[in-house]
């Protein structure tokens, strides 16, 4: 079976697409392609053939990449085209119509809700338009793959073959051994944006009297937000141990996670998509034996509380965040136990090996 992944907006080495789905499929299928935005064609060290088209200039630049993707994909002649966005799935639908290929729609985002945010004045109208557009397309899929129960239930209303593949982490062959900093260390990993709770963490740090270290691993996503944080630190946190690493190689991230006692997952509550998400960052902390300070949203709470892997807080309340930091910093042994609890839970219930078998079974039914 020849397989071709289609993506209009994800990187070739996207964690879900490449390191989870493709490497799982490589265990049974040799002939795998990715058609994705990039600078040049190449073959990965795993033998996956990459075909590239120029990246889109902005979110409005949609039709030219779709045309490029179709022109490349039709030359591959795949048995299955596996698409990761509504745009790329529209290409897959055309390929099915013209060549009789099987097609998969892999929906890992709340696309109608996300796209409508570009049109704040008519957000509700646009959300309905995109929802109906996605519905018409998705009915033509041979299989729909998605990441949580909310999306599974949405698609099951009009499609009989819907597979749940959460974004669980891949278990490593070698488990991470912690090398804790001597003082309580709190970490955030990811893009630094206000809606990720970064500013709230800084405001909480001002309320903390315990000697703690704070590490922010990742790039600021705007200069204006960087300036806002720098100004707050200058005026309020000169006596705090705060490190911003900037963008660093993926392998270096684990050097910082090794030292951390707890990690922040503080998506802000103003966005419906955030409130109804299972952030991959949550599982990535857990798999590295790092206790969690998470938003008190239903999906996060349902993972953190039963597993005893951390604490949930009101993510827009510096006082609530500060209370959790104080609790964890003042009882390091309990915090380490939370980290161990999280690791054990991921190892048992929240890892990619559980999803891999479902993915391979879904493909076997498309032969």
TrEMBL record:
Transmembrane residue ranges: none
Entry keyword DNA damage: no
UniProt-listed InterPro entries: Glyco_trans_1 (IPR001296), Glyco_trans_4-like_N (IPR028098)
Span of domain Glycosyl transferase family: 184-343
Keyword field: Transferase
One Pfam family it belongs to: Glycos_transf_1
Domain of life from the UniProt record: Bacteria
PANTHER family xref list: GLYCOSYLTRANSFERASE WBBK-RELATED
Protein name, as recorded: Glycosyltransferase family 4 protein
